[in-house]
Write a sequence for this structure.
């Protein structure tokens, strides 16, 4: 199905909006109304886009790839969906832009040490049936440096490569990879996603700091547990599991 130049693989449906409040909210509303898995909501601009911990997501209209996918999966798989979509997006960007994208725990994509994209998974219920929505925002064809409200640690594909990337084709490549994962045996997809996620973890096995509220913990980033917790090896040799916080260096 194609709307506004966006094309979906077979079995997917795309709903394209020039402007909306939040694609995650649109997807949740559609999920509550019974929309099927593989429904995708794309916007050229969001007036109330958000990231992790309620942070605002800012962009220039028509310059970024902003979309949310509706999944009908067990709530226990929510972090697996975050990993799956992060890996799919990173691999698609690699292919389209010829760059190496890393994954920063728990939900950011990094290019050349700067934040390129964010992934936000939210869960909900339709009567007794759970579902999840996974929103992805990728800075594509604008330079975020100097844009009011955007941190100077951000980047974009245009800034990182000097070239413009076709947003519609990038979405198609991402959905193809997600579709491939969803078609795998459940046990295999979990192993495959975790392996490919681990290969891209930003600063894995390096000394890092994790800010959790008012507390900062330092140690070696050992990896990620099955439930998504960051595994931090402290200086005393103990292993700390962190489920919330910000990874810094």
């Amino acid at each position: 199905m194609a709307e506004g130049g966006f094309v979906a693989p077979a079995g997917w449906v795309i709903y394209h909006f020039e402007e909306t409040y939040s694609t995650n909210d649109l997807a949740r509303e559609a999920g509550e109304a019974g929309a099927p898995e593989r429904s995708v909501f794309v916007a050229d601009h969001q007036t109330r886009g958000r990231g992790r911990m309620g942070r605002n997501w800012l962009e220039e209209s028509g310059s970024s790839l902003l979309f949310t996918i509706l999944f009908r999966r067990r709530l226990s798989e929510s972090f697996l969906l975050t990993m799956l979509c992060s890996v799919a997006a990173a691999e698609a960007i690699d292919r389209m832009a010829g760059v190496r994208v890393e994954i920063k725990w728990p939900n950011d994509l990094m290019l050349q040490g700067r934040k390129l994209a964010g992934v936000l998974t939210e869960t909900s219920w339709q009567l007794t049936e759970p579902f999840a929505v996974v929103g992805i925002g990728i800075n594509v064809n604008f330079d975020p440096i100097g844009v009011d409200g955007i941190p100077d640690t951000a980047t974009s594909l245009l800034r990182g490569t000097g070239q413009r990337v076709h947003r519609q084709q990038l979405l198609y490549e991402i959905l193809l990879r997600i579709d491939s994962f969803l078609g795998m045996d459940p046990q295999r997809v979990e192993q495959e996603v975790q392996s490919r996620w681990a290969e891209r973890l930003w600063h894995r096995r390096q000394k890092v700091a994790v800010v959790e509220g008012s507390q900062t913990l330092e140690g070696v980033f050992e990896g990620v547990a099955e439930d998504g917790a960051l595994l931090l090896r402290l200086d005393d040799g103990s292993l700390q599991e962190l489920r919330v916080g910000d990874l810094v260096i």
Observations:
- Residues 78-97 form the longest helix (20 residues).
